[in-house]
Write a structure and sequence with these properties.
289 residues, mainly alpha, 10 helices, flat
Length: 289
């Protein structure tokens, strides 16, 4: 039996047990799904009266407008969070102690502050419009988290990489741009995408400050008495779209990662095989055996 770094390869009995566990888990999941569907049918969630509002053009336009507003808020927040996080990470890696302390204070403050409190403070206290208030709150929180991701990723690169670059005469900006950051990006990419997925889902907090995003549109439909309160059908439409957007974002991250692996700038260079040669610079007249 061959061994793995983390565990031994399962034998015939272990594989049989694993198949039995997998089959039992599948049966339990299918039974749970069937039970949920049964409850939905019993409570009349699939009746024509609850689903007919979605055939109206006005309802469809309301949902599409809310989806567009969600993507708009996420686009602004994603770009600004990445930029804000890069600036804070650069400050935290600075050799100047006051800059490093200031950036550390900003990161720890906004990471500890609840996102909803920040959004409400910007919207109510500062009298900012709903979209800028939502984007500002998402940027401050997610940018602070991404700053730690960037800093940890750069510090995770082998120390000798930076030392070798400094030995070649590069200054700090060149070392960060051409040596440390390209190597750290591949390690940081999963954490970056995970945080962007969090930012995408947190755009739903915009409905609390009357920003007309996707969840706000669903709430307007579900709370309208003329449509027989189709709350569950609204959830069954909105939830898969949110899940699909998050999966699409993850797929895009995997695609970028694969392209990086094929990039000739990050591929390992082939080293020529060693050939016999002279031992000393002046030994070119010495006959070889």
């Amino acid at each position: 039996m061959t061994a793995n770094a983390l565990y031994d390869v399962p034998g015939p009995r272990a594989r049989t047990r694993h198949r039995a566990y997998g089959l039992a888990g599948t049966v339990v999941i299918l039974a749970l799904i069937g039970w949920i569907l049964y409850l939905l049918f019993v409570t009349g969630q699939f009746t024509r009266a609850k689903w007919s509002p979605f055939t109206y053009v006005g309802i469809q336009e309301l949902l599409l407008t809310g989806l567009a507003n969600t993507l708009r808020a996420f686009g602004f927040a994603a770009v600004l969070s990445l930029a804000f996080g890069a600036v804070l990470a650069t400050g935290r890696l600075s050799v100047h102690r006051p800059i490093r302390w200031l950036c550390t204070l900003v990161v720890e403050f906004f990471r500890a502050m609840p996102l909803l409190v920040m959004i409400f403070f910007i919207y109510v206290a500062l009298q900012v419009a709903p979209l800028p208030a939502l984007v500002a709150g998402l940027t401050l929180y997610n940018g602070s988290v991404l700053a730690e991701v960037f800093r940890s990723g750069i510090n995770a690169v082998e120390r000798g990489q930076g030392e070798a670059a400094y030995a070649l005469g590069m200054h700090k900006t060149q070392v960060m741009t051409y040596v440390l950051v390209p190597q750290a990006v591949r390690a940081m990419l999963p954490a970056i995408i995970s945080q962007l997925v969090v930012a995408l889902k947190d755009t739903s907090l915009g409905f609390l400050i009357t920003y007309e995003e996707f969840l706000h549109a669903g709430k307007l439909i579900a709370s309208n008495l003329d449509y027989d309160l189709p709350f569950i059908p609204v959830v069954m439409i909105i939830a898969p779209i949110y899940i699909g957007m998050c999966m699409l974002l993850s797929w895009f991250a995997n695609w970028v990662s694969r392209r990086q692996m094929r990039n000739p700038k990050v591929e390992s260079a082939e080293v020529a095989a060693a050939e016999p040669g002279n031992l000393m610079p002046g030994d070119h007249h010495r006959p070889t055996a």
